[in-house]
Design goal:
By secondary structure, this protein is α/β, with parallel strands linked by helices. The protein has 32 helices and 25 strands. The strands form five sheets. The chain has an eight-stranded parallel beta sheet. The longest helix is centred in the last third of the chain and has 25 residues. The N and C termini lie far apart (64 Å). The model has no long low-confidence stretch (mean pLDDT 92). GO terms for molecular function: cobalamin binding; metal ion binding; methionine synthase activity. It catalyses: (6S)-5-methyl-5,6,7,8-tetrahydrofolate + L-homocysteine = (6S)-5,6,7,8-tetrahydrofolate + L-methionine. It holds the Pfam family S-methyl_trans.
Length: 803
């Protein structure tokens, strides 16, 4: 077989194989058993499935290693040996007729601050799995069915550290976002920053719904893509088996549209069979493929887990908020020295409210260990806000530590011409997909003229190119030197901006206020220089967003430079403008959770202010408010408002968890008082468990947290729990409800075991079920009392059953 990268450049359309889980189940895989572990005992069955897909026309065979990570397999298994063995089977069948893709699925765990695993730990877990696949003969690494951007990035980082094979990465979306709030476009932006060779989507639903995902990422997609839809949605047949109803021919008719939308690889996911792939290949025929051409001309894109900020010559100028910097800020400095983040969080919230799309984060204060404090503060900020961050430090080790905890593509500020700087930080930025500011300074002497700066820039670009760093990761600092001492400084900066735009197509940024240092009426100079700079190609600037004059200049320039269609943003912000002669800027209406009319404790829950909520509770207690009143009148209305935002897709899983944990923190303070007031009486008990054979517990854990926040006593039995143990625990604790979770179609059938046992024992206990594959029809078929697709609906269901 040729190198896989070679076929990414040709004009052919290729085909992945289809689903494995339901197919293996039809060939003997027991319900609830790991397909990977079973594959070691039944290698001929695995060979048979690979062989059938090969004969059906698949160009790429996927290894039976989707759940082959250590957290999925358990401590007794050897992930390396299993992955090598399963990959060897696929390699033997493929021979030189097909490529072998090493399937790397989710671990079932979140990265901190959403979960307990560190990003480094997750990377090491994937490295162990990938190592086995590489030694087994894989041609590419295929991350598939991922729903969290941080975990998807961990697969890519692990693959880059472990081997030189190309990487394909696929995310599954629920509507217009993944489970943790990543849109298709933000996923593409992040993966392209990381240099992923093939970007795709799989699972989720049938091919008709997947069309929306491909359309959503099209504006900035410049990488070959693939799409693997399910054969419709899962249903339960009369025998209680999970089936997918979309037959091969209609599946092929619908999925062939992906080729028309630019996909280079097509395939199938849950419920698809060799016949689906054969029909799809016949339907597509010999049509050719052309590399996608983005319609959006962004030169750089910064991302968080859920937000993309494009930077380019036709995009709005980006304010990089400068306030999280201890220089000249005594309180912030003192807090950073104590490891406290309160003031930094306040600065972040203020700047976002004032319209800064990106926040610069600098902790360089005396007596501060930046290598520890910077990643700690980054974790706090990404847990509270969605704005992308700029990691700002002169300490390369601190920058690296920050990159290891960030879930998207942050900006690194900066890489200069200092000897060894590009060599140290450039490869890290490439590995993590982190764009950076190129600072044209060599040694201690500042380059005054445009010619001097451009010479340094050219040398650094050559060095970056030698390290394989793409231009999409580079933005140039045009250097603003004060005109009070160097009158020609502004003119040279403007020339650098123009040359970067016209000669190299590179975006530029600048520390705006430096230009006016030492002069009166600094905002006049700053705003005028901003206007000239934007006309010369400036794309972003580091500044305090709390300046009305700067905001006015920015938005007016966008209109005059034809970067604000129909002047919509300008009109929205300044329709009631009056000449105030400068001063503070007005907040942006849609900049984040707005809670101006809510009581402080309730607002803290809505905003997820876990660090500040206890102090606010103390204030209410000091005013004489009873603990139970705080719960009923402030905390519960707050979490209900969060649930409504989640249902309206204003909040996603990270915000839901942050608010739930904030409420738990407040409860921790109030619990002794509630018991003293007599408010700690009997609560309805819910026994929660993931069913036997299923080791996925993320969704179940979230439901447990939300139920506790709504006044339920929760007994969490964990994952892979047998029906008898579940029912025994429900009897022991006097439970009103049993909650069951399952993620896989092969394990959801075990839910019926618990329902039957409850009925056989004659217990007056309601059974509710949930999970990605659970449907209303399945719920009715097994006789459960209700079902839910997410934690918010699960709480409402539980409340209705105990009312």
């Amino acid at each position: 077989m040729p190198d896989f990268r070679a076929i990414l450049r040709d004009d052919r359309i290729y085909f992945f194989d289809g689903g494995y889980g339901t197919l293996l189940q039809s060939r003997g895989l027991p319900a609830g058993l790991s397909p990977e572990l079973w594959g070691l005992k039944a290698p001929e069955v695995i060979r048979g499935v690979h062989r059938d897909y090969l004969e059906a026309g698949a160009d790429v065979l996927t290894t039976n290693t989707f759940g082959g990570s250590r957290p999925k397999l358990g401590l007794d298994a050897d992930p390396y040996q299993l992955n090598r063995a399963m990959t060897r089977i696929a390699r033997e069948v493929a021979g030189d007729r097909a490529f072998v893709a090493a399937s790397i699925g989710p671990t079932g765990h979140f990265v901190e601050p959403l979960g307990e695993l560190t990003f480094r730990e997750l990377v090491e877990i994937f490295r162990e799995q990938i190592r086995g696949c590489v030694d087994g003969g894989a041609d590419l690494i295929l991350g598939e069915t991922h729903f969290d951007l941080a975990e998807a990035r961990a697969v890519v980082v692990a693959a880059r550290l472990e081997c030189r094979l190309p990487v394909a990465m696929s995310m599954t979306f629920e509507g217009d976002a993944s489970l943790t709030g990543t849109s298709p476009l933000t996923f593409v932006d992040t993966m392209q920053n990381m240099g992923v060779e093939l970007i795709g989507t799989n699972c989720s639903a049938g091919p008709e719904r997947m069309v929306d995902t491909l359309a959503a990422w099209a504006p900035r997609l410049a990488t070959p893509s693939f799409a693997e839809a399910n054969a419709g949605l899962p249903e339960l047949d009369d025998a209680g088996n999970t089936v997918f109803r979309l037959a091969p021919e209609p599946f092929a008719e619908q999925a062939a549209r992906f080729a028309d939308m630019g996909a280079k690889f097509l395939g199938g996911c849950c419920g698809t069979t060799p016949e689906h792939i054969r029909a799809l290949r016949a339907r597509v025929g010999d049509r050719s493929w052309k590399r996608p051409e983005p319609t959006d001309d962004a030169r750089m894109v910064l991302t968080s887990r859920s937000v993309s900020v494009p930077i380019g010559f036709s995009h709005p100028g980006v304010i990089i908020g400068e306030r999280i910097n201890p220089t000249g800020k005594a309180q912030l400095t003192a807090e950073l020295q104590e490891g406290i983040h309160t003031e930094a969080v306040r600065f972040a919230a203020e700047q976002i409210e004032l319209g800064a799309p990106v926040l610069d984060v600098n902790v360089g204060a005396p007596m501060v260990d930046e290598k520890t404090l910077l990643p700690g503060l980054i974790k706090t900020l990404i847990g509270r806000f969605t704005a992308p961050l700029s990691i700002d430090s002169n300490d390369s080790a601190a920058v690296e530590a920050g990159l290891w905890v960030y879930p998207g593509s942050p900006l690194v500020n900066s890489i200069s011409g200092e000897p060894g700087k590009m060599e140290a930080l450039g490869p890290l930025c490439k590995l993590f997909g982190a764009p950076f500011i190129l600072l044209p300074i060599v040694g201690r002497k500042l380059p005054v003229t445009a010619g001097e700066r451009l010479a340094v820039i050219e040398d650094l670009l050559v060095e970056a190119e030698g390290l394989g760093i793409p231009r999409r990761l580079i933005m140039v600092d045009a250097l603003a030197l004060t005109v009070s001492s160097k009158p020609e400084a502004a003119r040279h900066s403007l020339e650098v901006m123009r040359r970067c735009r016209d000669d190299w197509g590179l975006p530029t940024t600048i520390g705006l206020s430096n230009i006016s240092f030492g002069l009166p009426a600094r905002e006049l100079l700053n705003s005028t220089f901003l206007s000239l700079s934007m006309a010369s190609g400036l794309c972003s600037f580091i500044s305090n967003p709390n300046s009305a004059r700067i905001q006015e200049t920015l938005h007016a320039a966008e209109v005059l430079l034809d970067r604000d269609p129909q002047a919509a943003r300008y009109i929205g912000r300044f329709s009631e403008w009056t000449d105030g002669g400068g001063g503070a800027a007005a907040p942006v209406a849609d900049s984040g959770p707005q809670t101006p009319d809510l009581p402080p404790v309730q607002a803290a829950v809505v905003k997820g202010d876990r660090d500040g909520v206890v102090a606010l509770v103390e204030v209410e207690l000091g005013r004489g408010m009873a603990a139970m009143s705080i719960v009923n009148d402030l905390l519960i209305p707050g979490i209900l408002a969060v649930g409504e935002k989640y249902e309206r897709k204003e909040y996603f899983l990270p915000q839901l968890l942050q608010s739930a944990e904030t409420m738990q923190t407040a409860f921790g303070r109030l619990r002794p008082l509630l018991e003293a007031e007599g408010g700690g009486g009997r609560k309805p008990v819910v026994v929660m468990a993931t069913v036997e054979g299923d080791i996925h517990d993320i969704g179940k854990n979230i439901v447990c947290l939300m139920l506790r926040n709504h006044g339920f006593e929760v007994v969490d039995l964990g994952k892979d729990v047998a029906a008898e143990r579940i029912v025994d625990a429900a009897q022991e604790h006097g439970a009103a409800i049993i909650g069951l979770s399952a993620l896989m179609t092969t394990t959801m059938v075990r839910m019926e075991d618990t329902v039957k046992m409850v009925r056989e024992r004659g217990l007056d206990i309601r059974v509710i079920i949930g999970g990605a594959v659970v449907t209303e029809k399945f719920c009715t078929a097994i006789g459960a009392d209700g079902w839910s697709t997410d934690a918010v609906r699960a709480v409402k269901l539980a409340q209705s059953l105990v009312a």
